[in-house]
Design brief:
The chain is α+β, with helices and mostly antiparallel strands. The protein folds into two domains: about 5-50, 2,3-Dihydroxybiphenyl 1,2-Dioxygenase, domain 1, CATH 3.10.180.10; about 70-135, Roll (2,3-Dihydroxybiphenyl 1,2-Dioxygenase, domain 1). It has helices spanning about 15-25, 80-90, and strands at about 5-10, 25-30, 35-40, 45-50, 60, 65-70, 70-75, 95-105, 110-115, 125-130. The radius of gyration is 15 Å and the shape is globular.
């Protein structure tokens, strides 16, 4: 699989670097005074300085739980998801939207999920699958 690319707005580049590198463990990439790149599990993320922008307050419903729209994140193996979930739960100051839980238990597409917000208010979801063949299960 090839990496995807996502550009997203942030209010402060230093704060964003501290969160994505220091908390999520991203590898930093190229940057300028108005943007910075990260590798998020091998995917190219570009944070663009937009101090006046604010995330949408919209929500959708998945398996009976309200989830923020829009959001972005990564699908992980269950081992990688558990490591991230444990690291986030042990870190003070995480802006939790949805603490780690299992969604669609016992059904096709069963997955672990968690939602957090970055310092700019962008919603991120991380999913974990025991069987990656279930990502698109009906």
């Amino acid at each position: 699989m090839t990496p995807f690319h996502l550009a997203f707005p942030v209010r402060d580049l230093e704060e964003t670097r501290a969160f994505y590198v220091g908390v999520l463990g991203c590898t930093p990439g190229r940057s300028s005074q108005s943007w910075t790149d990260f590798s998020l599990y091998g995917h190219l993320m570009s944070a663009h300085l937009r101090p006046g922008s604010s995330p949408s307050g919209d929500a959708g419903s998945v398996d009976g739980t309200a989830v923020p729209i829009p959001h972005f994140g990564v699908v992980l193996t269950m081992e990688d998801w558990r490591a991230l979930a444990d690291r986030l739960e042990a870190t003070d100051g995480i802006d939790w939207i949805l603490h780690p839980q299992i969604r669609f238990a016992g059904k096709p597409g069963e997955q672990a999920t968690l939602f957090i917000r970055d310092p700019s208010g962008n919603a991120l979801e991380f999913k974990g699958f025991s069987d990656l063949e279930q990502v698109f299960a009906l």
